[in-house]
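Dear U.,

For the methods section draft, I wanted the exact inputs and outputs in one place so we can describe them consistently. I've listed the two proteins in the order they'll appear in the manuscript figures. Please don't edit the token lines directly; just add comments below if something needs changing.

First protein:
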Amino acid sequence: MTDEHSRALTLDEFPNPVIAYTVEEGVPRITALNEAVESAFDSISGGMPVATIFEQFSVVNSTGSEDPVTHLSRGDCVGIYLDGIGDEGPLFARIISADDDSGYLVFSDLSECLDVAEAPAIDQVSSVISHDLRNPLDVAKAHLRAARETGDAEHFDAVADAHDRMEQIIRDVLTITRDQITVDPSENVSIEAAAKDAWQSVDTESATLNIREELPTVTADADRLQRLFENLFRNAVEHGSDIDDRLRKQEQETDSGRVVVVSVGGLEDGFYVADDGQGISSEKQNQVFDPGYSTQDDGTGLGLAIVDRIVAAHGWELTLTTAANGGARFEIRF
């Protein structure tokens, strides 16, 4: 009896265009193709160089460091972005290596996906995943070590909370790449509680939180509100430590590091988050909320963009100004 699960799939069973190729004398050539390829591309048949397909597009870029044909020849598992063929939308082709000299090229239609040209770059999204997840991951590791050493079960609760935050961050990254943020508001969310919870989720060893005026409660999505505070706190800590030469010299003389003070206070119709760093110049204040914009070489440029969209999703207003001490001040009004 034939084992249905072990039989090999034929190319025609794939709904998307798929070609098989073999590298002959350094040239990747098509050895097989399915009907979807014949429908998607003009005059393509077995034996032709794979480059014949690429030549039908005006835009051909690989996610690797070399041109697509070179990656095909080497069997590199990279992607190829293709655009500019008639009225068709962009395509993304994935190289799947079978052995040293052969493999497959699988095409996917991107016309119903996000606009690649306007979305944050792939390396920026990767940076968010590695950068923003580091804090809760470090928290989880620390509490797991403490649990093993002390046997205190409360540490496992902290690990679970850290995992929840990581899951939320991943959802936020996916959300911003799709250009939409949804909220599920509930009654009477405490601004102060959200701020304090967020402070525990961010690496704030070199910073101090100052809750100033009495903070209101508001109808909001509690998870999104905490994420808003996390991003504002992280921005303050990272950029607030950028000090001028005079302050740096003073710190070297006193053998102490700069401690950033982050203040959260109430407004008549909202709240604010301010720091005592160098602030954000007026020329850059309209740019910092753009996805991908960052003043640091290793910055992701998504943190404040998420803040902006969380505020907008709640129907609130966000204003960036300069604090009295020269730092950045973010005002959120309901």
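Second protein (the one for the lower panel):
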Amino acid sequence: MIGIFDSGVGGLSVMKELIAAFPDYQMIYFGDTARVPYGNKSKETVTRYALEDASFLIKKGAKLIIVACSTASAFALDTLKKKLKVPVIGVIEPSIKAAIETTRNQKIGVIGTRGTVRSNIYVGLAKKIDPKVQVFQQACPLLVPLAEENWVNKPETRRIIKYYLRPLKARGIDTLILGCTHYPLLAKTIQDIAGKSIKLILPGQESAKAVQKLLKKNSKLEKSLTKTRKHHFYASDISGEFRNIGNRFLGRRIGKLIQADVSKR
């Protein structure tokens, strides 16, 4: 199976893109809802959580891990790649590569959680790929609850997005990375406020492209993936809201949802 994990429901927006790209492959999702959010926790804590999440998915049969959490991708990806025996893909590197290929004036904006912005991972990766590119970041802590509450077209949401985008637009960016898996639910509103001259980069779409490239290079891995449309869903804490919100993020009804404690005692 293709394993996908996030701190909560946001990673289901990445799973949505993966299902669209690989409709015949079986996938397994884990949302660490008991310990959400990751965005305000230390690097050491997020790395420990990410290792536990990924190890749980591997035990369930995952042959490939997608870190569908920007904070975990920023803080834990290198450790996951070193310690796990299966390929690992995060949501950050595919997004920054796509943004660098897209930008015309070498000015890229990133919106994300405080943890993601604090890590400076986008800035560091951009310098390695193309030192001429400038990356401007903006933490947007209010956008996650707005996405979960489905306040997509509310006047209050538009005002908050305008506030967050104002300093990035003042920098003259022509490309904007939605650096949190919750933000695609607000993509239409963000695009409307950003303007047609600014191209949006969505993490789920770029991660799906990265998986496509990996499977083309690794036929053995591709052949090891189960081809069935039955997917599995786990969460460390289950509430009615997970299913209601998750259905919107996934773009379809979530199947059977099972509670699982992945923390090491």
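Candidate sentences for the figure legend, describing the second protein: Residues 153 and 189 are 7 Å apart (CA to CA). The longest helix spans residues 43-59.

Thanks,
Y.
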